[in-house]
Amino acid sequence: MHFHGLGWQVIGLDTDTEALAELRGALPRESALFLSCDVGRESEVRNAFEGIGEWLGECPLDCLVNNAGIADPVAGPLEELELAEWQTWIDASLTGAFLVTRASLAFLRRSACASIANISSTRAVMSEPDTFAYAAAKGGLDALTHSLAVSLGPRIRANAIRPGWIETGPWQKEGKRSHPEHRPKDREQHPVGRIGRPEDIAEAVAYLHAAGFVTGQHLNIDGGMTAKMIYER
């Protein structure tokens, strides 16, 4: 919604058909395309980009945002973590970013100002207990980012955004929407005095797309949370 408000044409891929249907109803079809796709599956990405290619015609893809992932980072004790569960986290964030970026290259190379924004996490550099697969996937996404920047430049720039605590409840699909009340101590963890909002991340993507001398970087969007020392009291 943020990017459409800036006058961009937007394309969205998601496995949640209900959420996609809500977006289709909210935005005009001539300036937005939404497709069902599991980005961790090569065949689904291939099929989705056939449709994207038809919709774009000869137009370029100026900005790619790899935002797929599993929201809950907690996997439980390491000795109970099955390989299939581990792979689910890796595929959602890291494999998905690889597959979608690879499929996007021909369209990005049409652009005079192409950029990639990989949505990583502050958990790429700090952890809570039992978040092995999530942290590994996001750390891998950070490494993929600087590799893309070096390999695809100068034509295409690539950067990573590391969100901290972002409250997405009001932005969920209708059946999952919520408006949580945050405690004072939740807000006080952040030097800016509040929890993050989705538009904070969208604004960072727009900044990195416009910042033509920035590539291979990892930008924390966390209200200063990772800069603040917090002691148990």
Describe this structure in words.
The chain is globular, with a radius of gyration of 18 Å. By secondary structure, it is of the alpha/beta class. It has a single domain (2-227), classed as Rossmann fold, CATH 3.40.50. The strands form two sheets. A four-stranded parallel beta sheet has the order 3-4-5-6, sandwiched between helices. A two-stranded parallel ribbon has the order 1-2. The protein has helices at 2-5, 17-26, 42-56, 83-108, 132-152, 184-188, 198-210; strands at residues 10-14, 32-36, 63-66, 114-119, 156-163, 218-221.
C-alpha termini separation = 41 Å
Secondary structure: number of strands:
6
Beta percentage is 5-15%
CATH class: Alpha Beta
**Which oligomeric form is depicted?**
single chain
Please supply descriptive tags for the structure shown above.
alpha/beta, single chain, two-stranded parallel ribbon
Summed up, what is this model?
It is built from 7 helices and 6 strands, in the order H-E-H-E-H-E-H-E-H-E-H-H-E. The protein has helices at 2-5, 17-26, 42-56, 83-108, 132-152, 184-188, 198-210, and strands spanning 10-14, 32-36, 63-66, 114-119, 156-163, 218-221.
Reconstruct the topology from this structure.
Blueprint: H1 2-5, E1 10-14, H2 17-26, E2 32-36, H3 42-56, E3 63-66, H4 83-108, E4 114-119, H5 132-152, E5 156-163, H6 184-188, H7 198-210, E6 218-221
